[in-house]
Structures are given as structure tokens and as C-alpha cells.
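Now for a typical sample entry:
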Amino acid sequence: TGEVEWSTPRTSGDTSYSTPFVIERQDGPPQLIASCNALGVTALDPASGRELWRSGPLPQRTVGSPVLVGGVVVQTCGQAGRGTMLVGIDPFANGDQKRIVIERTK
């Protein structure tokens, strides 16, 4: 129809160019995964735009898109053609479980 289904305000930081993707599971709701340096990696409900979780800020901008590898969302960040950090996030963590499971800096 061309009508906006939902809109979610997001804090902005440095310009980011990553492309979001959707995780679909048989045993849970879908998650729209997006990333930027101000919020880090964020999951939204694709039907409503409601935030489901976020990893927390990343130190530099995200240009490479997040990917799902072995059940872990992997995201890098950097500046001026130099990647400085890689994080791996468990998108299926519950409650108080640690969400960031991998963190590597250069």
C-alpha cells in the first residue's frame, strides 16, 4: 500500500552503512537485526518495531553488515578502512544471560 507500518526512533551516532537482516526460528519470534555504533547490535520485532534487545554501543561506526554464524550474530566496527573490533552476540539469550559472547579488539 505504500503506507508506513511502523517507525522506531533510534539514537544516531557516526554514519553507519550496515544492512539489517531477519532471524527466523521455529521455536521463537523473528528478530530484525540492525546495527550502528550508538546502539550497537539491536533486535526489533519486525511486526511492530518494538525493541527486543540491544548489545550496547560500539566504539566506532558499523559499515559491514551483521551476519548470523553458528547461532551468533557477528558484527565488526572501525574507521577509515580499519576494523578495530569484532563482537559476537547471542540473539537467543534470556533474561540475565550474557548477550555478548565474543569480543575481540585490534
About this structure: The chain has a mean pLDDT of 90. The longest strand covers residues 28-36. The radius of gyration is 14 Å. The CA atoms of residues 35 and 41 lie 4 Å apart.
